[in-house]
Amino acid sequence: MNQLQQRLTEQGDFLHLSRTQPELLDTPIDLTLANGTGVRVTAPGIIQFSAAKHQGKDIVLSCGVHGNETAPIEICDDLVRALLTGELETCQRVLVLFGNLPAMDIGERFVEENMNRLFSGAHSDTPGLVNDERRRAKQLEQSIADFYAQGNEQGQNYRCHYDLHTAIRASKNEKFAVYPYRHGKPWKTEQLQFLLACGVNTILLSNGPTTTFSYYSSNEFDADAFTVELGKVRPFGQNDMTRFEKARQTLTALVSQAELSFPAYNPDDFHIYEVNQVINRTKEDFRLNFADDTPNFTDYPKGTVLAEEPGATYVAEQDGEAIVFPNAKVALGQRALLTVVPTTI
Ligand SMILES: O=C(O)CCC(=O)N[C@@H](CCC(=O)O)C(=O)O
Ligand SMILES: [Zn+2]
């Protein structure tokens, strides 16, 4: 083992190294831990673990696709440290992705462009690979494609991808997940049970394809994939990590146990919503018609004006239609607001 490999396995500070000395990780690293786990670093922020005795799951965990969403970054950092130092042993193949390292350094959602609108090839749409976020989105896509392809060589493995985020604003339902559009395939209740074990009891069913990271893995690799929102954006070190203990424990169990078992699905345990409207900002002068501190999942009576821009007024189409992810400052053409309505599956 060289000095760098020794440092990684003794201190486990992969994220710190990725952020402070990324050049050290530009050359791929392959090593085997004392417990037999294979470790492969292919780039800063991209690390893979392969159990000596693999139990058939190819698991992708991503965080920091938005640089200021720190709680999931801290969870993944701790998980990677535990795996590298041998404190925790995986029995699966696990790929951990720390998405936007430069945005973490400036404590912002992104540097030039929202990376979570750049997947499924959108990174290369006009004007092409012109900034770091576009190039990184392409690299992250490729790392998942390679990871799943390598898994395939060892037999058809089960695939999942949990892309961990936090929401910009407070939420009536603190933890929730976006279930990417499945093109008519059934929503999986056993996946909802996994999310419930993570402390996530609110699910948004998407109504169409998107350029998000979770949709990419779901659509291209048939992975069980979700965008998981674990609370609210806060600076590093300012998260109350006790609020994420269930997520931490369940993700740890996912990588370290051959099988997880959960109680049977009970609809009463969940708030399930389907997307009713995707409202894009098309004009500079786009305005939300509610206060900046209105929490996600606040609902309105039919006819309430939710947002306006020259030439368009967006209203609640149904009683009880609720707002999610409102953001009047998104780039033109991007989603400024989702509206959702309760549903069942
Ligand atoms: O709170 C917000 O406004 C944004 C939080 C966030 O980053 N959410 C994801 C959701 C992705 C999805 O719809 O699957 C995003 O906006 O990228
Ligand atoms: Zn996010």
UniProtKB/TrEMBL annotation:
GO terms for molecular function: hydrolase activity, acting on ester bonds; succinylglutamate desuccinylase activity; zinc ion binding. Pathway: Amino-acid degradation; L-arginine degradation via AST pathway; L-glutamate and succinate from L-arginine: step 5/5. Gene3D superfamilies: Zn peptidases (3.40.630.10). SUPFAM superfamilies: Zn-dependent exopeptidases. Its EC number is 3.5.1.96. Its cofactor is Zn(2+). Residues 269-342 form the AstE/AspA barrel-sandwich hybrid domain. Keywords: Arginine metabolism, Hydrolase, Metal-binding, Zinc. Zn(2+) binds at residues 66, 69, 165. The active site is at 229. The keyword Zinc applies. It catalyses: N-succinyl-L-glutamate + H2O = L-glutamate + succinate. Binds 1 zinc ion per subunit. It is an enzyme of class 3 (hydrolase). One of its GO terms (biological process) is L-arginine catabolic process to succinate. Residues 55-254 form the Succinylglutamate desuccinylase/Aspartoacylase catalytic domain. HAMAP family: Arg_catab_AstE. Belongs to the AspA/AstE family. Succinylglutamate desuccinylase subfamily. Transforms N(2)-succinylglutamate into succinate and glutamate. This is Succinylglutamate desuccinylase. It comes from Saliniradius amylolyticus.
